[in-house]
Structure formats: structure tokens, C-alpha cells
From TrEMBL:
UniProt region (Disordered), positions on chain: 446-467
Species lineage: Bacteria, Pseudomonadati, Pseudomonadota, Betaproteobacteria, Burkholderiales
Protein name: Sigma-54 dependent transcriptional regulator
A Pfam family assignment: Sigma54_activat
Species for this entry: Caldimonas mangrovi
Modified residues (4-aspartylphosphate): D52
Organism domain of life: Bacteria
Length: 467
């Protein structure tokens, strides 16, 4: 049975909140000041702390520092003066959710009804943390590199809270999978998870898709439509590519985030919603604000807990892990037993992967289709070479021989410098003569590899093998 501590200096509001909590099957303690609340905390740690921000003897959020195990208590801030700054500040100081006066009873009930799942949730996250260290997995995400371990830790910390999350990463890095993982590890996991791509819906229709519309509200509206906010009630809504949302709609979205209420197109009747918001973008959000694509106030409201997803080129051996995972999936689906050749694995580290994990999946599927028993990989397309020439980063597999590392770095730098050898030598910090010597050695090795073996097929035997 969840225990709730309610702290408010208004006796009437304190009484009816306690009544609602008791009706939801919670044990309840109340306090009208910080001092009285601290006495209650000594007696029993609450599963939920509902506290007014402004109390006679200080801010209610000071109580966060008095909790013995803060991660085990959901802290809900109550404010009568909601603004973007006050709400964001409350969430950053330790609140996991907030309520605006006059309080919405249904939203309060929704918060209280989430609590019985908390013990199971902490156990599940603990198991997943152990799993990620063993197998490089976390929820729907795969990878064991330091960059991914850092990502997993952030997701595990923010998932149990109600904080708004902003996922930032290049296309194909797995932002929707990260959002789904946050939802699956949250108190809302038994409610809907919905994702909407703000850049894939026409500006004329996106308001209707988000908030719904009434029959006859515009031409073609021949029936009532329930929008994403209404369908995701109690759950999580991912706004993918949020920087592509029309500016006039960003104002309405900000209002929903502040008040928890919206109106369908064609009516002024307010509808309450309890939705955890996750934004995602492949742009630099601060640059999007500077370019006038994202409102500054909406950015700060979404940026309560920013999470950066690493590009594939910064994930080291995850490239091979993911490729083998995708190949195993294809083998299961098709009933085959194809494998990668060592040359195919080495070739994976020669690409820039500008399309990240999505590009890698497509690459493996194409190579699988073209292979017989052993997947040799595909030649690097011209478009990828262009991307590599623009990139200042190359991926090198751990364990690569040092002479091969030197060759890769030298050739990549030469290409980056437009084949100007004097400039390449300056960038590498070597003499021009040393560079020429290296290039001559590389050319000799390439020539030796291309030469047919001595005494080959002429010995009368069939020496052909599967590649």
C-alpha cells in the first residue's frame, strides 16, 4: 500500500487531497510546514511526496534533501503560479512531476495510481543494469561501448521520473528506441506509447493529428477525430523531429505542457491529459532556436533532461556487434546460416556510417542478399566516399595492427587534404620525404596482394574455395 505525504499550508486543499489519496488506497500523512513535514519523514519515508512550492518556512523542494532514499520517492511539486521557468526549475531541483492550482483531480489520481508498480519497476531497472554490463543490451538498445554505457545510465536514471526528456542525435542513432525504452522502464509502461513525426505531417494537418478535431470543424472533417494527446493519456508521447513543427503550433504545445489541457480543433472545450512528453531532434536545438525554427521557451520546457545519442562512428566495436546481430536476425527469419568473412568485418570499419545504425542495418541486408554462404560485404559506394572525405573522424577496430592504423590515418588525411601531399605531411606532423616513403610502401603491398600466387592452379589441382 503506497504511503503519501502531502505538504500544503492551505487546510482545505490539504484535506481534500488527503481524501483523494485515501480513496485511491494510500496511507496518508499531512503537514502544513517544512518543520512538520520533516517530523513525518522521520516516522515513515513516503512513496509519494506532494508538496507546495511556497510554504511559510521555505520552499517545499527543500524536503528532497531530507529523503533517506530520494530515488524511491516520487516528488510532485504543487504551484499556483505555473510558468516555464518555475516548472523547469522545480523539475531540476528534484521534482519528478508537478500539479498546478486549482488542482486537476483526475491528474492527481493518475499520479497516485502509478505507485503500486514502483517496486517492480526498481527491480526491473536493476536487472537491466546488470544485463547491460554483461551483454551490451538495455531495453531495446544494443551496444557495449563506453558511449552506450553512459547513455544507458542516463536512461535508467530518468525513466522512473516524469521529467520531460529531449533526445538529441543524428538520424539513425535510435532515438525512437531510446524513447520506447524510457517508456518501458517508467511507471507509465502499461499505458500507450505513441510516436509522431512532426516533419512527416503537413502543417495543415499536424494540429488535428496532435489535438484531434470535431466533425465539421474544417473541409473534409466528416467525423470526430481523437488526436495523439488524447490517445496517449496516461502514457508517453514522442514528438520526433520537434524542430520541424510550425511555429504557431509550438505556442499551443507549450500551453499543453504548462497546463496539461488542450482543445480539439473546432471547439473551445478543454480536455485534460496526463502525458509524459519526450522530444527528439536530429538538429542542434540551440542552433534551431537561433535560426528561428524552435521557440526559445519551448526549447527550455523540453530540455529538462537532455540526452545525446552517440553516432555509430563513435561507438567502436559496437559496429561489429550490431552487424552480427542484424545478420543473426536475417538467418533466423530465412532459416539460413550465413556468416561474415574476416574481410567483411574489416570493411565495416572503413565506412563513415553517416546514416548510423539504420544505414548499417540496410548494408547488412543488402550484403546478405548478395551472399551465398559467406557474407563478403559490399564495396564502399561513391556517396559514402564523399561523406568520408568530409569527415574528420574514422573508426578503427580495437586490435587493428599498428601499421594498418598508420595506413588508414595517412590515407584518410591525404584524401581530406585533397591529395595535396605537402599539406598532408604538415597535418600529420611528418616530413614530405617520410610521407612519400609511406605511400611507396603502401603501393608495393597493394601490388603484392594483387599478384597471382606462384605455382597456383597450374599444379593440376582444383584449388578453388568458397570466399
Amino acid at each position: 500500500m503506497p504511503h503519501v505525504l502531502i505538504v500544503d499550508d492551505a487546510p482545505d486543499e490539504l484535506a481534500w487531497m488527503a481524501e483523494v489519496a485515501a480513496a485511491e488506497g494510500c496511507t496518508v500523512a499531512t503537514a502544513e510546514s517544512l518543520r512538520a513535514a520533516r517530523v513525518q519523514l522521520v516516522r515513515q519515508q513516503p512513496d509519494v511526496l506532494l508538496t507546495d512550492l511556497q510554504l511559510p518556512d521555505g520552499s517545499g523542494l527543500q524536503l528532497v534533501h531530507d529523503l533517506e532514499a530520494p530515488v524511491q520517492t516520487e516528488v510532485v511539486a504543487i504551484t499556483g503560479h505555473a510558468s516555464v521557468d518555475s516548472v523547469v526549475e522545480a523539475l531540476r531541483l528534484g521534482a519528478t512531476d508537478y500539479l498546478v492550482k486549482p488542482l486537476d483531480v483526475e491528474r492527481l489520481r493518475s499520479i497516485l495510481q502509478r505507485q503500486p508498480q514502483e517496486a517492480d519497476l526498481r527491480h526491473e531497472i536493476g536487472e537491466l543494469r546488470g544485463e547491460l554490463r554483461k551483454a551490451g543490451r538495455f531495453g531495446l538498445l544494443l551496444g557495449g561501448s563506453p558511449a552506450m554505457q553512459s547513455l544507458y545510465d542516463k536512461l535508467a536514471r530518468v525513466a522512473p521520473t516524469s521529467a520531460t526528456v529531449l533526445l538529441i542525435g543524428e538520424s539513425g542513432t535510435g532515438k525512437e528506441l531510446a524513447a520506447q525504452t524510457i517508456h518501458d522502464l517508467s511507471r507509465r509502461r502499461r499505458s500507450p506509447f505513441l510516436a509522431v513525426n512532426c516533419g512527416a505531417i503537413s502543417p495543415q494537418l499536424i494540429e488535428s493529428e496532435l489535438f484531434g478535431h470535431e466533425k465539421g470543424s474544417f473541409t473534409g472533417a466528416d467525423r470526430q477525430h481523437i488526436g495523439f494527446f488524447e490517445r496517449a493519456n496516461g502514457g508517453t508521447l514522442l514528438l520526433d523531429e520537434v524542430t520541424e513543427m510550425p511555429m504557431e503550433l509550438q505556442v499551443k504545445l507549450l500551453r499543453v505542457l504548462e497546463t496539461g489541457a488542450f482543445a480539439r480543433v473546432g471547439t473551445t472545450q478543454a480536455i485534460s491529459t496526463d502525458v509524459r512528453m519526450i522530444g527528439a531532434t536530429n538538429r542542434n536545438p540551440e542552433k534551431a532556436v537561433a535560426d528561428g525554427r524552435l521557440r526559445d521557451d519551448l526549447y527550455h520546457r523540453l530540455n529538462v533532461f537532455p540526452v545525446h545519442l552517440p553516432p555509430l562512428r563513435e561507438r567502436g566495436n559496437d559496429i561489429e556487434m550490431l552487424a552480427r546481430h542484424f545478420l543473426a536476425e536475417l538467418n533466423r527469419q530465412e532459416g539460413t546460416h550465413k556468416t561474415f568473412s574476416p574481410e567483411a568485418i574489416a570493411r565495416l570499419y572503413e565506412r563513415s556510417w553517416s546514416g548510423n545504425v539504420r544505414e548499417l542495418r540496410n548494408y547488412v541486408q543488402r550484403a546478405y542478399i548478395l551472399a551465398d554462404d559467406v557474407v563478403e560485404g559490399l564495396e564502399t559506394p561513391e556517396s559514402d566516399s564523399v561523406d568520408e572525405s568530409r569527415s574528420d573522424v574514422i573508426s578503427i577496430r580495437i586490435g587493428t595492427p599498428l601499421d594498418e592504423v598508420e595506413r588508414r590515418v595517412t590515407m584518410a588525411t591525404l584524401e581530406r587534404c585533397g591529395n595535396v601531399k605537402r599539406r598532408t605531411a604538415e597535418v600529420l606532423g611528418i616530413s614530405l620525404k617520410t610521407l612519400y616513403n609511406r605511400l611507396e610502401v603502401y603501393a608495393m603491398k597493394d601490388k603484392a596482394r594483387a599478384a597471382p600466387p606462384k605455382g597456383g592452379p597450374s599444379n593440376g589441382r582444383d584449388n578453388s574455395t568458397h570466399a
